Amino acid sequence: METFIAQILNGLSLGSIYALIALGYTMVYGIIQLINFAHGEILMIGAYVGYYCVAVFGMNIYSAMVLSMLASSVVGVLIERIAYKPLRNSGRLSVLITAIGMSLLLQNGGLIVLGTDYVPFPQVIERVPYHFFGGHLMVTSHQVLIFTVSILMMILLQYIVGYTKIGSAMRAVSHDREAASLMGINVDNVISFTFIIGSSLAAVAGVLLGLYYQTIHPLMGFMPGLKAFVAAVLGGIGVIPGAMLGGFLLGIVEAMVSGYWSTTYKDPVVFIVLIIILIVKPTGLLGKNTSEKV
User: Fold this and answer.
1) Nearest Cα to 1, choosing from 117, 102, 137, 123?
2) For residues 42 and 225, what is the distance between their CA atoms, to the nearest angstrom?
3) What pLDDT is attached to residue 289?
4) Residue 194 contacts residue 28 (beta carbons within 8 Å)
5) H or E segment to which residue 129 belongs
6) Which of 103, 168, 170, 255 is the most exposed place for a label (fewest CB within 10 A)?
7) Residue 89 to residues 80, 140, 205: CA-CA distances in angstroms?
8) Under 8 Å CB-to-CB from 31, ≥6 apart: which residues?
């Protein structure tokens, strides 16, 4: 029983990171029906900015997160304006290929600029174990930090989307872009803001992944980005609560497979779960054909 609860806690902390990344995928898809495959590389950029802020400039982890959010937001908007906006009226295949190309460009650019070595991420938060139930259950300070920061970011996102003017504009654009434009909404600004929010969440996820795995690498965004995309599809891509649910579910499945079986099989099992759920419910767990997307 102790092992089961421990793996649930591990899954929740890892799953909260996946949920943050998945939110970026699902928001962009909800607005412009684009799978932004460069999202994982935006995460990588955020992680490296956080690393330099902490290791070189001696900032605390929270200031580093803020700066990494700003840097990743700038990169996200530039990618949207330079690579995606000119293709906004093109076919989906052209945009999809462009997104994959942008991902590969950032990966290889990262290898050239940042090198090929794994870099140890500064453990600025001491890893303190907290024991409960006579020592049978342990929670680390890192898990508490990751889970708390992730939940706060999700609450902030829900507030922005649900209770602000720009959030209303995002929902309007996600329903009907042309009608929203006729109603006086600046669609370009809404799309850019969506990339800012999504990239900021990815940057926070990158810093948290650095703390979780204790190393960063220019290719570190590929697999978490792919899994977060799986989480978004699992929950119902385009649906914000679905991305959160998918992220947590994915993290728990991974932790269970690693704890009871082997870390070797965690990735295949994740994709098998995706296939099974999509066979049973093709729109994802919370996806609906006529649902509110953002």
Assistant:
1) 137
2) 10
3) 62
4) yes
5) strand 129-132
6) 168
7) 14, 49, 31
8) 170, 173, 174, 190, 191, 194, 293, 294
